[in-house]
UniProtKB/TrEMBL annotation:
Listed GO MF terms: metal ion binding; xylosylprotein 4-beta-galactosyltransferase activity
Keywords attached to this entry: Glycoprotein, Glycosyltransferase, Golgi apparatus, Manganese, Membrane, Metal-binding, Signal-anchor, Transferase, Transmembrane, Transmembrane helix
SUPFAM superfamilies linked: Nucleotide-diphospho-sugar transferases
Subcellular location(s) per record: Golgi apparatus membrane
Topological category with respect to the lipid bilayer: Single-pass type II membrane protein
Known role: Catalyses the transfer of galactose onto proteins or lipids.
Domain Galactosyltransferase N-terminal: 53-140
Entry protein name: Beta-1,4-galactosyltransferase
Superkingdom: Eukaryota
Pathway: Protein modification; protein glycosylation
UniProt KW Transferase keyword: yes
Family membership noted in the UniProt record: Belongs to the glycosyltransferase 7 family.
Length: 321
Protein backbone atom coordinates (compact mmCIF):
# COMPACT_ATOMS: atom_id res chain seq x y z
CA UNK A 1 0.00 0.00 0.00
CA UNK A 2 2.74 2.38 1.08
CA UNK A 3 4.79 1.45 -2.01
CA UNK A 4 1.82 2.04 -4.29
CA UNK A 5 1.22 5.35 -2.61
CA UNK A 6 4.91 6.23 -3.07
CA UNK A 7 4.74 5.26 -6.76
CA UNK A 8 1.61 7.36 -7.37
CA UNK A 9 3.23 10.27 -5.54
CA UNK A 10 6.37 9.89 -7.61
CA UNK A 11 4.40 9.75 -10.85
CA UNK A 12 2.34 12.83 -10.06
CA UNK A 13 5.53 14.69 -9.10
CA UNK A 14 7.05 13.72 -12.45
CA UNK A 15 3.90 14.86 -14.24
CA UNK A 16 3.86 18.18 -12.40
CA UNK A 17 7.55 18.68 -13.10
CA UNK A 18 7.04 17.93 -16.79
CA UNK A 19 4.14 20.34 -17.06
CA UNK A 20 6.10 23.08 -15.30
CA UNK A 21 9.08 22.51 -17.60
CA UNK A 22 6.87 22.73 -20.72
CA UNK A 23 5.32 25.95 -19.47
CA UNK A 24 8.71 27.53 -18.72
CA UNK A 25 10.12 26.41 -22.10
CA UNK A 26 7.16 27.88 -23.99
CA UNK A 27 7.53 31.19 -22.15
CA UNK A 28 11.27 31.38 -22.75
CA UNK A 29 10.98 30.47 -26.44
CA UNK A 30 8.50 33.27 -27.08
CA UNK A 31 10.52 35.87 -25.25
CA UNK A 32 13.87 34.81 -26.62
CA UNK A 33 12.93 35.05 -30.30
CA UNK A 34 13.70 38.66 -31.02
CA UNK A 35 16.52 38.89 -28.53
CA UNK A 36 18.24 35.86 -29.96
CA UNK A 37 17.84 37.00 -33.53
CA UNK A 38 19.84 40.11 -32.69
CA UNK A 39 22.55 37.99 -31.16
CA UNK A 40 22.24 39.44 -27.71
CA UNK A 41 23.98 37.72 -24.88
CA UNK A 42 24.11 40.06 -21.99
CA UNK A 43 21.64 42.74 -21.02
CA UNK A 44 23.31 45.56 -19.20
CA UNK A 45 20.77 47.27 -17.06
CA UNK A 46 21.60 50.16 -14.91
CA UNK A 47 19.59 50.99 -11.85
CA UNK A 48 18.80 54.56 -12.68
CA UNK A 49 17.61 55.89 -9.37
CA UNK A 50 19.37 59.22 -9.61
CA UNK A 51 17.11 61.09 -11.98
CA UNK A 52 17.31 64.77 -12.71
CA UNK A 53 15.64 66.81 -10.02
CA UNK A 54 15.41 69.80 -12.32
CA UNK A 55 12.18 69.49 -14.28
CA UNK A 56 11.76 73.20 -15.02
CA UNK A 57 13.61 73.18 -18.33
CA UNK A 58 11.87 70.13 -19.76
CA UNK A 59 8.45 69.25 -21.11
CA UNK A 60 7.09 65.73 -21.33
CA UNK A 61 4.69 64.59 -24.04
CA UNK A 62 2.78 61.56 -22.78
CA UNK A 63 1.95 59.67 -25.98
CA UNK A 64 -0.99 57.33 -25.48
CA UNK A 65 -1.76 54.93 -28.36
CA UNK A 66 -5.50 54.52 -28.32
CA UNK A 67 -8.59 52.91 -29.77
CA UNK A 68 -11.86 52.15 -28.03
CA UNK A 69 -10.67 52.49 -24.42
CA UNK A 70 -12.94 55.31 -23.31
CA UNK A 71 -13.58 54.13 -19.75
CA UNK A 72 -9.87 53.64 -19.17
CA UNK A 73 -9.11 57.12 -20.55
CA UNK A 74 -11.62 58.73 -18.20
CA UNK A 75 -9.71 57.24 -15.30
CA UNK A 76 -6.21 57.59 -16.73
CA UNK A 77 -6.14 61.27 -17.73
CA UNK A 78 -7.07 62.94 -14.44
CA UNK A 79 -5.07 60.40 -12.47
CA UNK A 80 -1.82 60.89 -14.39
CA UNK A 81 -2.29 64.67 -14.61
CA UNK A 82 -2.43 64.86 -10.80
CA UNK A 83 0.44 62.38 -10.41
CA UNK A 84 2.70 64.43 -12.72
CA UNK A 85 1.73 67.73 -11.12
CA UNK A 86 2.80 66.35 -7.75
CA UNK A 87 6.23 65.72 -9.29
CA UNK A 88 6.29 69.17 -10.91
CA UNK A 89 6.66 67.57 -14.31
CA UNK A 90 5.57 69.93 -17.09
CA UNK A 91 3.55 67.73 -19.40
CA UNK A 92 1.05 67.34 -22.22
CA UNK A 93 -1.29 64.38 -22.42
CA UNK A 94 -1.66 63.33 -26.04
CA UNK A 95 -4.02 60.57 -27.13
CA UNK A 96 -3.39 59.21 -30.61
CA UNK A 97 -6.68 57.70 -31.63
CA UNK A 98 -6.58 55.14 -34.45
CA UNK A 99 -9.62 55.81 -36.68
CA UNK A 100 -8.93 53.57 -39.67
CA UNK A 101 -10.22 50.02 -39.80
CA UNK A 102 -6.86 48.24 -39.86
CA UNK A 103 -5.70 46.19 -36.91
CA UNK A 104 -4.39 48.20 -33.98
CA UNK A 105 -0.84 49.46 -34.41
CA UNK A 106 0.56 50.79 -31.14
CA UNK A 107 3.99 51.55 -32.59
CA UNK A 108 2.82 53.55 -35.62
CA UNK A 109 0.48 55.57 -33.42
CA UNK A 110 3.39 56.51 -31.16
CA UNK A 111 5.48 57.41 -34.22
CA UNK A 112 2.66 59.61 -35.52
CA UNK A 113 2.11 61.19 -32.09
CA UNK A 114 5.81 61.97 -31.87
CA UNK A 115 5.85 63.72 -35.26
CA UNK A 116 2.75 65.75 -34.42
CA UNK A 117 4.05 67.00 -31.06
CA UNK A 118 7.82 67.08 -31.27
CA UNK A 119 8.02 70.86 -31.36
CA UNK A 120 6.27 71.03 -27.97
CA UNK A 121 8.31 68.59 -25.88
CA UNK A 122 11.89 67.45 -25.42
CA UNK A 123 11.04 64.03 -24.02
CA UNK A 124 8.24 61.53 -24.36
CA UNK A 125 6.56 58.74 -22.44
CA UNK A 126 5.18 55.92 -24.53
CA UNK A 127 2.28 55.23 -22.21
CA UNK A 128 -0.42 52.56 -22.13
CA UNK A 129 -3.81 53.98 -21.20
CA UNK A 130 -4.52 51.19 -18.74
CA UNK A 131 -1.37 51.35 -16.62
CA UNK A 132 -1.48 53.71 -13.65
CA UNK A 133 1.58 54.42 -11.48
CA UNK A 134 0.72 53.94 -7.82
CA UNK A 135 3.99 54.53 -6.00
CA UNK A 136 4.85 58.25 -5.89
CA UNK A 137 8.55 57.36 -6.15
CA UNK A 138 8.04 56.35 -9.79
CA UNK A 139 9.74 59.32 -11.41
CA UNK A 140 8.68 60.88 -14.71
CA UNK A 141 11.60 63.33 -14.69
CA UNK A 142 13.69 63.96 -17.80
CA UNK A 143 15.70 60.78 -18.51
CA UNK A 144 19.17 62.35 -18.56
CA UNK A 145 21.06 59.06 -18.62
CA UNK A 146 19.13 57.37 -21.43
CA UNK A 147 15.77 55.60 -21.86
CA UNK A 148 14.06 55.02 -18.54
CA UNK A 149 11.71 52.05 -18.31
CA UNK A 150 9.24 52.91 -15.61
CA UNK A 151 6.99 49.84 -15.92
CA UNK A 152 9.99 47.63 -15.15
CA UNK A 153 9.61 43.85 -15.10
CA UNK A 154 10.23 43.69 -11.36
CA UNK A 155 7.33 46.14 -10.84
CA UNK A 156 4.83 45.44 -13.65
CA UNK A 157 1.84 43.40 -12.43
CA UNK A 158 1.93 41.09 -15.47
CA UNK A 159 5.17 41.13 -17.48
CA UNK A 160 8.32 39.99 -15.73
CA UNK A 161 10.85 39.09 -18.42
CA UNK A 162 14.17 40.88 -18.31
CA UNK A 163 14.07 42.55 -21.72
CA UNK A 164 10.51 43.88 -21.33
CA UNK A 165 10.31 47.60 -22.16
CA UNK A 166 6.56 48.01 -22.77
CA UNK A 167 3.85 49.69 -20.73
CA UNK A 168 5.59 52.97 -19.88
CA UNK A 169 8.94 54.02 -21.34
CA UNK A 170 10.48 57.50 -21.00
CA UNK A 171 12.79 58.68 -23.72
CA UNK A 172 14.53 61.86 -24.79
CA UNK A 173 13.09 63.01 -28.11
CA UNK A 174 16.57 63.06 -29.63
CA UNK A 175 17.05 59.39 -28.68
CA UNK A 176 13.69 58.44 -30.18
CA UNK A 177 14.70 60.13 -33.42
CA UNK A 178 18.15 58.58 -33.37
CA UNK A 179 16.57 55.11 -33.12
CA UNK A 180 14.16 55.94 -35.95
CA UNK A 181 11.29 55.44 -33.50
CA UNK A 182 9.40 52.17 -33.54
CA UNK A 183 8.87 49.64 -36.31
CA UNK A 184 5.63 50.10 -38.27
CA UNK A 185 5.28 46.40 -39.05
CA UNK A 186 3.50 45.40 -35.86
CA UNK A 187 -0.26 45.28 -36.53
CA UNK A 188 -2.20 43.47 -33.83
CA UNK A 189 -0.97 42.85 -30.33
CA UNK A 190 2.57 42.62 -29.07
CA UNK A 191 6.26 42.42 -29.89
CA UNK A 192 6.81 46.02 -31.10
CA UNK A 193 8.26 46.81 -27.68
CA UNK A 194 10.61 43.80 -27.83
CA UNK A 195 11.84 45.01 -31.21
CA UNK A 196 12.42 48.46 -29.75
CA UNK A 197 14.50 46.92 -26.99
CA UNK A 198 16.85 45.59 -29.67
CA UNK A 199 17.04 49.05 -31.31
CA UNK A 200 18.12 50.58 -27.99
CA UNK A 201 20.57 47.80 -27.33
CA UNK A 202 22.17 48.07 -30.76
CA UNK A 203 22.54 51.82 -30.32
CA UNK A 204 24.27 51.10 -27.01
CA UNK A 205 21.90 53.28 -25.05
CA UNK A 206 21.82 52.56 -21.35
CA UNK A 207 18.43 51.49 -20.13
CA UNK A 208 17.53 52.81 -16.69
CA UNK A 209 14.93 51.38 -14.38
CA UNK A 210 13.58 52.33 -10.97
CA UNK A 211 15.32 50.65 -8.07
CA UNK A 212 13.62 48.01 -5.99
CA UNK A 213 10.52 49.65 -4.60
CA UNK A 214 8.86 48.11 -1.58
CA UNK A 215 5.57 48.05 -3.49
CA UNK A 216 6.85 45.40 -5.98
CA UNK A 217 4.16 44.23 -8.40
CA UNK A 218 1.71 46.59 -6.71
CA UNK A 219 3.66 49.64 -7.95
CA UNK A 220 1.17 49.97 -10.84
CA UNK A 221 -2.51 49.39 -11.33
CA UNK A 222 -3.33 47.63 -14.60
CA UNK A 223 -6.98 48.52 -15.25
CA UNK A 224 -7.32 45.97 -18.03
CA UNK A 225 -10.46 43.87 -18.17
CA UNK A 226 -9.30 40.72 -19.98
CA UNK A 227 -12.84 39.75 -21.00
CA UNK A 228 -13.88 43.16 -22.30
CA UNK A 229 -10.49 43.87 -23.90
CA UNK A 230 -9.20 40.69 -25.48
CA UNK A 231 -5.81 41.01 -27.17
CA UNK A 232 -5.54 40.59 -30.94
CA UNK A 233 -2.95 37.84 -31.05
CA UNK A 234 -3.70 36.62 -34.58
CA UNK A 235 -0.76 36.04 -36.87
CA UNK A 236 -1.65 36.22 -40.58
CA UNK A 237 0.43 35.38 -43.65
CA UNK A 238 4.12 35.41 -42.76
CA UNK A 239 3.60 37.94 -39.99
CA UNK A 240 5.28 35.75 -37.42
CA UNK A 241 8.46 35.27 -39.45
CA UNK A 242 8.59 38.88 -40.65
CA UNK A 243 8.27 40.36 -37.18
CA UNK A 244 10.65 38.23 -35.22
CA UNK A 245 13.78 40.00 -36.44
CA UNK A 246 14.85 43.56 -35.90
CA UNK A 247 13.34 45.85 -38.55
CA UNK A 248 15.96 47.96 -40.30
CA UNK A 249 13.50 49.44 -42.81
CA UNK A 250 10.66 51.17 -41.05
CA UNK A 251 10.27 53.65 -38.24
CA UNK A 252 9.29 57.20 -37.42
CA UNK A 253 10.86 58.36 -40.71
CA UNK A 254 8.60 56.10 -42.80
CA UNK A 255 5.28 56.04 -40.90
CA UNK A 256 2.36 56.97 -43.15
CA UNK A 257 -0.82 58.48 -41.75
CA UNK A 258 -3.33 61.26 -42.12
CA UNK A 259 -4.50 63.48 -39.31
CA UNK A 260 -8.28 63.59 -39.50
CA UNK A 261 -8.70 66.15 -36.73
CA UNK A 262 -7.28 67.37 -33.43
CA UNK A 263 -9.53 67.88 -30.42
CA UNK A 264 -8.66 69.53 -27.14
CA UNK A 265 -10.61 68.08 -24.24
CA UNK A 266 -10.61 68.48 -20.51
CA UNK A 267 -11.36 65.31 -18.56
CA UNK A 268 -12.14 66.02 -14.90
CA UNK A 269 -9.73 68.95 -14.94
CA UNK A 270 -7.02 67.24 -17.04
CA UNK A 271 -6.25 68.81 -20.43
CA UNK A 272 -5.95 66.15 -23.13
CA UNK A 273 -5.20 66.55 -26.82
CA UNK A 274 -6.77 63.87 -28.98
CA UNK A 275 -5.21 63.42 -32.40
CA UNK A 276 -7.52 61.43 -34.65
CA UNK A 277 -5.29 59.52 -37.02
CA UNK A 278 -5.85 57.35 -40.08
CA UNK A 279 -2.90 55.01 -40.53
CA UNK A 280 -1.89 53.99 -44.03
CA UNK A 281 -0.92 50.36 -44.60
CA UNK A 282 1.30 49.11 -47.40
CA UNK A 283 -0.44 45.83 -48.27
CA UNK A 284 2.62 44.56 -50.09
CA UNK A 285 4.86 45.03 -47.10
CA UNK A 286 2.47 44.10 -44.27
CA UNK A 287 -0.66 42.35 -45.61
CA UNK A 288 -1.42 41.29 -42.02
CA UNK A 289 -2.63 44.83 -41.24
CA UNK A 290 -6.12 43.77 -42.37
CA UNK A 291 -8.69 42.54 -39.89
CA UNK A 292 -9.52 38.86 -40.29
CA UNK A 293 -12.90 39.62 -41.85
CA UNK A 294 -11.30 41.91 -44.46
CA UNK A 295 -9.25 39.11 -46.02
CA UNK A 296 -10.61 37.65 -49.26
CA UNK A 297 -10.29 34.10 -47.93
CA UNK A 298 -12.37 34.93 -44.87
CA UNK A 299 -15.54 35.79 -46.81
CA UNK A 300 -15.08 32.86 -49.18
CA UNK A 301 -14.67 30.42 -46.35
CA UNK A 302 -17.70 31.84 -44.52
CA UNK A 303 -19.74 31.33 -47.73
CA UNK A 304 -18.54 27.77 -47.82
CA UNK A 305 -19.49 27.36 -44.17
CA UNK A 306 -15.92 26.52 -43.45
CA UNK A 307 -14.76 29.56 -41.53
CA UNK A 308 -11.17 29.30 -40.39
CA UNK A 309 -10.37 29.78 -36.77
CA UNK A 310 -9.42 33.36 -35.94
CA UNK A 311 -6.39 31.98 -34.10
CA UNK A 312 -4.64 31.11 -37.34
CA UNK A 313 -0.87 31.31 -37.01
CA UNK A 314 0.19 31.65 -40.61
CA UNK A 315 -1.74 31.63 -43.86
CA UNK A 316 0.89 31.86 -46.52
CA UNK A 317 -1.38 31.03 -49.46
CA UNK A 318 -4.04 33.60 -48.63
CA UNK A 319 -4.45 36.74 -50.69
CA UNK A 320 -5.31 40.18 -49.46
CA UNK A 321 -8.24 42.09 -50.84
N1 LIG B 1 -4.72 49.85 -27.01
C1 LIG B 1 -5.92 50.50 -27.32
N2 LIG B 1 -6.87 49.83 -28.01
C2 LIG B 1 -6.70 48.55 -28.42
C3 LIG B 1 -5.51 47.89 -28.09
C4 LIG B 1 -4.54 48.54 -27.38
O1 LIG B 1 -6.12 51.67 -26.96
O2 LIG B 1 -7.62 48.00 -29.06
C5 LIG B 1 -3.63 50.62 -26.35
C6 LIG B 1 -3.91 50.98 -24.93
O3 LIG B 1 -3.22 52.17 -24.63
C7 LIG B 1 -3.32 49.80 -24.21
C8 LIG B 1 -2.05 49.56 -25.02
O4 LIG B 1 -2.43 49.84 -26.35
O5 LIG B 1 -3.05 50.09 -22.87
C9 LIG B 1 -1.46 48.17 -24.89
O6 LIG B 1 -2.43 47.20 -25.21
P1 LIG B 1 -2.93 46.11 -24.14
O7 LIG B 1 -3.36 46.82 -22.90
O8 LIG B 1 -3.93 45.24 -24.79
O9 LIG B 1 -1.60 45.30 -23.87
P2 LIG B 1 -1.07 44.61 -22.53
O10 LIG B 1 0.14 45.43 -22.14
O11 LIG B 1 -2.13 44.66 -21.47
O12 LIG B 1 -0.71 43.23 -22.91
MN1 LIG C 1 -3.26 46.38 -20.81
Amino acid sequence: MARQFQRTKCRSRLLMGGLLLCFICAMLMGIALIVESAGLRKVSFQKNEVQSKSTADHTLCVLVPFRNRFEELLEFAPYLHTFLNKQNVKHKLVVINQMDSYRFNRASLINAGFLETRSQCDYIAMHDVDLLPVNGALSYAFPEMGPFHLAAPHLHPLYHYKTYVGGILLLQSQHFEMLNGLSNKYWGWGREDDEFFVRMKKAKLTLGRPGNLTTGYRSFRHIHDHFKRPRDQNRFFDQFEKTRRVDKETGVSTVKYKVDSVKDLVISGAPVTVINVLLVCDLNLTPWCLQAEDHAWYNKSVLHKNAPSTKIKSISTATAT
